[in-house]
Amino acid sequence: MNIREVAVIGLGTMGAGIAEVFARGGFAVTAIEVDPDALGRGMAILDGSLARAVSRGKLTQTEHADILGRIRPATVLAEAAPADLVIEVVPEQLAIKQQIMTELDRVVRPDAIIATNTSSLSVTAIAAGSAHPGRVVGMHFFNPAAVMRLVEVVTTVRTGPAVGRAVTELARKLGKTPVQVTDRAGFVANALLLPYLNHAVRLLETGYATREDIDAAVTESVGLPMGPLALLDLIGLDTSLAVLEVLHTEFGGTRYIPAPLLRRLTAAGRTGRKSGGGFYDYPAKGTARAAESPMMHNEDQPPPPGTITLIEPEAGHGSGDRVGHGDGARPGGRHHDRAAELASLIAAAGISVTRNPAHPTDLAIVAVGPEGGVLAAAVAAGRGADAVGLHLAGQQLAELVPTRLTSASALAAAQALTGGLGLRSVRSADRPGLLAAALIYPHLRDAVAMVADGYATAGDVDAAMTLGCGYPRGPMQLLAEFGPERVLGVLRAMQAGYGDPAFAPPPLLAEIALAGWLPAGLSTVGSSAAGNEAAGRETAGRETAGGEAAGHDMTGHDMAGPEWAGGTAAAQPPQRGT
Ligand code: CAA
User: How is the beta sheet containing 387-392 ordered, strand by strand?
Assistant: First the structure.
């Protein structure tokens, strides 16, 4: 199929971005928005994005004008008549999308392809609105559409094979990396991303950590390009809510139940960047206010303590040291290693360290692991009031964990300590799963569960998150780096602590931890993404669309042979990390 003319229906944030991508790719674009005001706003978004590219030296003024010249704004659907491909980008409501399919039957040529950019709705159900479901296909872009490389090509059992192939080829022509998926709620990327974002909202509303600390916990520890709350503002809280509702209907379970705060903010019209505010404020539309520093700067901060008692939680305290056969099981285990690392770090800063809890010092630091448990160790040491947990999550990030007994002065002293050590600090509740692990490990769990379900391969999962969401490394690669055994231990602690099966590790994760097996080819996928300066924005990645070439059948199963092979992760030392 030779696609030259494209019609984009709906010119919100995504529609404007998609229209821009097509026009920049040399296609003639009809941009249709029935509401003239919304059309004006959409064209302004598009123009602003092009102007930004000009100001960054990526486009010339002439190219800017040429691209705009290829876009024909319109307010009636009939203007889609000449299009070879129509893509609908209207709000995430099945009835509206089906209605558009029905109307398009009367407008477009019989051989035109009809694509939907739905984030999570069933493409099969959307196609039911069309008299020709064989020509309906999902073509799912990621925000900002001009930047993110991933396009999920969603075929249904009705989609004609030529249609799937044409859209896959089209995505490549646009400079994107297509990943072919079958029709399941949230496809690959959103089914993994949204529960993680939702969990971040729950952590915020339950006072687990502050907004800034939640975001810093993942950007600073894992290097994700944005924190979950900032990302929700980018995606739109209303869109995110709609996706979660679809996911919950399809999969059930607590992880997809939208956090009440997400509903409240959406109801209040705080839908994110596009409305001027969500979790953060964006005074000039689309321009983020300078984020408040996630560092715990305090003008009145006391000087770092001169003497510190280092408390090592009892061996076996916290599940991370008891699971499997890794280094956590040897005498002393990881608590011991953590305490030793902290002791040398603190001593190197010229602060005197003792391990004797009875010895009077300025501050007691509990060398806590990501499974939490500061209070028990502090009480056991008789240092309830002046003990603070400290966990190094990544090279630059310290998680500070006060307990219910910790005094304000002890917390201030701990903040001064991390500041003096040159570490950025976030504050976490003393719960199973400290802040960074509470955010990231269940996300990795979901990725393993998706692979275990046979919906996507480990490579697809990593490609989707690096190319679609700019992760420096995909979830399966992160799992390898953190150590499956450690992730398993923290998840078990979270499951036991909260009694929520949503945190239950899938059997496959336990198998990986025990056998030291990891998905074959991980290093290839991970290193190609990690080695790329744009982290998912420029990488060629692993192209899996086209099904046949990648050895995928219609269910997404890998037909090439066993997916699991002896991996290298067991031989890698676990990262200091979440
Ligand atoms: N439009 C066009 N280009 C944009 C842009 C926009 N809205 N925002 C950023 N860019 C470009 C910039 O021009 C810049 O390009 P150059 O390097 O060529 O100059 C580049 O992107 C980087 O931008 P910045 O330096 O301003 O900012 P940054 O480095 O902080 O990156 C970001 C911004 C690309 C948004 C980055 O933070 C990121 O990758 N975030 C993750 C976004 C993500 O996860 N998206 C997926 C959301 S899920 C989804 O969309 C699916 C769904 O259905 C809900």
Answer: 352-354, 307-311, 363-366, 387-392, 397-402, 424-427
